[in-house]
Amino acid sequence: MAEPTAGWPGSVAELVAEQRALAAERPRRWHPTSDPLTAGCFAAFPRGHSGKGSAGDPAWAGAAAYRRRRCRARATTSGRAGWAYEPGLLAMRVGPVLEAVVRALPVRPDVLLVDATGRDHPRRCGLAVHLGAMLDIPTVGVTHRPLLATGAWPADRRGAASPLLLDGERVGAWLRTRQGRRPVAVHAGWRTDAYVAARVVLGSGRHRTPGPIREARRLARQARASTPR
Known about the structure:
Elements: H1 12-24, E1 38-44, E2 58-67, E3 70-80, H2 90-103, E4 111-114, H3 127-135, E5 139-143, E6 161-166, E7 169-175, E8 184-188, H4 194-202, H5 211-225
Parallel strand pairs: 1-4, 4-5
Antiparallel strand pairs: 1-2, 2-3, 5-8, 6-7, 7-8
């Protein structure tokens, strides 16, 4: 079982203060190349897990790095949740185990896809932003729905996008990754904006969920299944 990495806040008050500090930073904007090494990460909890969970829940994490839609590296690890799930405080629950699994990859990705929001957050610092800052890697959030932002769905064609706004600020976009399927919410993260987020996700496969996150999810669930009860 991987040990939690150092540096993550140990209390809600510390997390809120760090979120506000990170939201105020203006790091140099990342501009993707035509062929970035794109990784995804995902954390899984015990089968039958429901509700908010609690601190100490076992967690399994997977990470996968892709180039040209081919998987180039994989990693898994396990740990313990640091907190119950609460909107806006996801970093307390899974931040350390996700950082550990991305660091376990034998390659350093150019950009990281995170199953979490970014600037769509009450303090403009969701887990996608926080994790990117901890790893010093540009990040993009990908979720099924926004946290606070609102916006109309885009046209029903692959690549169509429409803005997600929070207090008038474009913090992400609805993105149609497959025609005839519900769009995903893509989020500006660490060193990225909503436009870059959509570009990276569209370049990450033709499934509704980007390939790197799909593979990371499979790895996390496989690691969970292989753990003796």
